[in-house]
Amino acid sequence: MAKLDANSTLKRLRNRYRLVVMNEDTYEEVVKFKLSRLSVYVFLSTVFVVLVGLIIALLVFTPLKYYLPGTGYGNAKQIREYKMLKFRTDSIEQDLQYKQKYYDDLQKILTGNLPVIDTNKLKLPKVENMPE
Q1: CA 83, CA 93: separation in Å to the nearest integer?
Q2: Most buried among 3, 15, 40, 55, using CB within 10 Å?
């Protein structure tokens, strides 16, 4: 098998070619391009890199990432449900704390472990002449 020379490969990449687009009916040249293999490779590589960059930016900066399986973000419905469950859990925890305080206070009352309250310091209005 023949070994490719680096100079011949580089020459082939730099050879100029003409691409002509012609009207089939009149054989009139519509557009013509002077291209080399190297310029085509550079152009296609640039288009590929730009498209990949745009797709990545689209996925990173928009909510589309929630609709892709395997990304770890889950879908939008799951996130909504998670937020609702978190809200409900917080409210249930708060209700549980209120009920626990109520039961603790009720237990203190039933066992008689109440702090002594001096009722002399209370300023209650005096009622005079109560009708019978």
Answers
A1: 15
A2: 40
44 within 8 A of 35, measured Cβ to Cβ: no
d(CA 113, CA 103): 14
Give the chain's mean pLDDT: 85
**SS3 category, 91:** helix
The fraction of the chain above a pLDDT of 70, given in percent, is 83
* Sign of the alpha-carbon dihedral angle for 121, 122, 123, 124: negative
d(CA 53, CA 45): 12
Q: Given the structure tokens 């009207």, which residue do they identify?
A: 23
Model confidence, pTM: 0.49
Classify residue 121 as left (phi > 0), alpha (psi -120 to 50) or beta: alpha
